[in-house]
Amino acid sequence: MPEGRHVAIIGAGAVGVVSAIETLREGHRVTLIDPGEPGGEQAASYGNAGWLSSHSVIPPAEPGIWKKVPGYLMDPLGPLAIRWSYLPKALPWLVKYLLSGWTEARVEKTAFALRDLLKDAPLLHRKLAEEAGVPELVERNGVMHVFPSRGNFDNDLGWRLRKKVGVEWLELNADEMRQREPDLHPRYTFGVVVEEAGRCRDPGAYVAALANHALASGAKLVRAKATGLKLSGNKLVAVITETGEIPCDAAVVAAGAHSKRLTASVGDPLPLETERGYHVMIENPESGPRSSMMASDAKMVVNWTDKGLRAAGTVEIAGLKAAPNWKRAEILRNHLLSMFPKLPKDIPASRIKTWFGHRPSMPDGLPCIGHARASRDIIYAFGHGHIGLVGSARTGRLVAQLLSDKQPEIPLAPFAPTRFL
Known about the structure:
This protein is α/β, with parallel strands linked by helices. It has helices at about 15-25, 45, 70-75, 85-100, 105-120, 120-130, 150-155, 155-165, 175-180, 205-215, 260-265, 325-340, 390-405; strands at about 5-10, 30-35, 50, 80, 140, 145, 170, 190-195, 200, 220, 225-230, 235-240, 245, 250-255, 275-280, 295, 300-305, 310-315, 350-360, 370, 380. The strands form 4 sheets. Strands 4, 6, 7, 8, 15, 16, 17, 18 and 19 form a 9-stranded mixed β-sheet that branches. The longest helix has 16 residues, at about 390-405. The model has no long low-confidence stretch (mean pLDDT about 95). One of its GO terms (cellular component) is cytoplasm.
C-alpha cells in the first residue's frame, strides 16, 4: 500500500486517539472525526473504572450463564440487567452472547486471544503517557481482587483460565489483607494481587492528553458526526458526516458503541451492542482502599482517581436511547459504603458524582480489529466492551500496522470482523 496516505479516524476515544498517534508514527496523515470533546464526559473512556488490567481476559459469558437470564430479566438493579422493553431487539445479540460462553473450551480460546491483546498493556500505556507529557496519570503498581472467602476464588473458572494463559498473582490471607487494607470491611477474608496490572488516575484527562499529543504531532480534529463511508468500487473516497464529506484514502472506524451504523453503510451488519455502564465517585473521601481493587461480591472496581474515589461496574442492556436508571448508580454507592465502613453514610450529595455511558460490546467478548469486506482501505477497531482503555494501547499499534500493510504483532484471526458475517 502507498505510504503517506490520508487516514480519517472516526472516534476520538481511547482507541481512536492511540490509533492516531501510532498512524502518525507510520508516516500517514491523520484526521480525527468526533462530534464531542476527546476525553469528555460523553465518552466511554471518561467513565472507565481506570483499571489497566492486562489480566482481564475472561469474556462476560461463561458456561451456565443461561440459567441466570430469568433473574436478569426480573431484577432491574442486578449486576447484569436486561430491560424488558429492549429484549426483542437485544435477543439476537443475547443468543450469540450465551453461545460464545457455552463451554469452557470456548472461553479458554477467548482468554488466550485477549491475553495477546492485553499483555504488557500497562507498560505500553506508561510509554504513551510519557510521550503525551502526563506520566503521572499511569501507574504500574498492581491491583487487588477481594473475596468473602477462599472458596469464592477457588470456584471461579476465570482464575483457572488466567493461570493457563500465564497470568501470575500473589495470594493474601485475611491478616495479610488487613495489613494492606485496614479500612476494608472484615467480611473479605481472601485476596489476590496482580502485580503486572496498573491503573489510570484520570481516564478522561489521559485520553484528552493523548488527543492533544496527536494534534501536536500533526493530526487534525474535525468536530462532526460521521454517518457513513463513501466507496468508489473497492476504494474508499470519503467519510460522510452531517456537515459534509471528508475526502480520505483510508478510514478507521473507532466510534465505540456508535460504530454499527458505519459498518452497515459498507455492507457489514455486525452484532454490536451497548453494555450500558455507570459509575459513582466520592470527592474528598474520608476512607477507602490503599490500592485499586475489585470486589467479587459486588462485581465492582474501586479506584482512586485525581477527582475522587470511583466505583464502577454492572451492565445494563437497554440500547443507546433509553434514559439512565440512576438507581444503578445508587447501588454502586451503597456497595462502596459497605466495603469501607469508615465512609460516612451521610456524605453530602454535592460530593457524590454519578456518570452513565455506553460500552461497545461484541457478543463473544472480543473486539473487532481488521478490514471491512468491501475495502481494505477501511479498518474496524471497536467493540472492546470492558477493556477499551487497557486494550487501546495495542489496538492502536495494530491499526497502524494494518494501514501500512505490515504484519500485525499478534494474530488477528480471533478478532476478525468476518467471524460474524
